[in-house]
Amino acid sequence: MKKSKVSGVDIIVWALLVVMLIFTVTPLIFMFSASMMQKNQILRMPYSWIPRPFYPHNFYQALRGNDGSWIFPRNMLNSLIVSSIVACTTVIFASLTGYGLAQFRFKGRTLVFMMIMATMMIPFEAIMIPLYMVARGLNIQNTYVGLILPFALSAFGVFQMRQYLTTFPVEFLDAARVDGLSEAGIFWKIVFPNCTPAIATLAILSFRGQWDNLLWPLLVIQSEKMKTIPLYISKFSEEKMTDEGAMMAVAAIASIPMFILFFSLSRYFISGAAVYDSRKG
């Protein structure tokens, strides 16, 4: 049995991956470590990665807020509602649109797809003021509708689902049509359940995009009760009474839903990325 030789290229690749892993994981470790320390411990050099003693009061301060309003749980709930609904609507609408563009032949199909892709070239900063004027005209400021509606569907989601569904076995669809299944039934009973990797990938990316969204909520939301996590973190970090430990606790709590979502769907996310990459090649 021949032993595989490790080349210099393999060593360089692994070294780069290890360096990237260190740069990625170190800030997360620092965040969770500092969230359990007092302020003077965080600023002490050399930095001690293990809190001594543990200081859980930072999490109480994070939830309570510097003003004692306890608005953080409400803001976190707002982000959960908005991000979850946007993820669901994006998955549904993008799947329907991608399925139509991938499996149906009609005049102007390529033009429609290219027009959808063209919208990805327009930065959000270029349309946020007109979009704000529309939201103001519809009187949906300080509402969940105002936060959700502009992001209910994304061009990237359509692109991803269309690329995934392009190679969906046509034989299954033809067999279902012969059996008398309607086009809606074919989509919901055959196509949609077999797109789990692409759906999980799109759901994670859509959820994360709204969970981190700061600019649009900053424009459309003025009420403290309707603000989202990024707005709370921005306000919390600017207040004079805030200490570094409480700030790290706020960041740690805000990151937990993303960790839960990613690790619960990680196997679908990874397989979806692998399938997409192979089809792209």
Structural notes for this entry:
The protein is mainly alpha-helical. It is 70% helix and 0% strand. The longest helix is centred in the N-terminal third of the chain and has 32 residues. The C terminus is likely disordered.
Quick structural overview:
With 281 residues, the chain is mainly alpha-helical.
Protein topology:
Layout: H1 8-34, H2 39-42, H3 57-64, H4 72-103, H5 109-118, H6 124-137, H7 144-148, H8 155-166, H9 170-178, H10 183-191, H11 196-211, H12 215-220, H13 229-238, H14 244-264, H15 266-280
What is CATH's topology name? MetI-like fold
- Rg, rounded, reads 23 Å
How far the N terminus sits from the C terminus, by CA atoms, comes to: 32 Å
The gross shape turns out to be globular
Number of domains: 1
Number of beta strands: 0
CATH class: Mainly Alpha
Tell me the strand percentage band. Answer: under 5%
**Approximately how much helix is present in the residues?**
over 70%
What's the CATH H-level superfamily name? MetI-like
Classify the secondary structure makeup into a structural class.
mainly alpha
Question: Which features does this protein show?
Answer:
single chain, mainly alpha, 281 residues, MetI-like fold
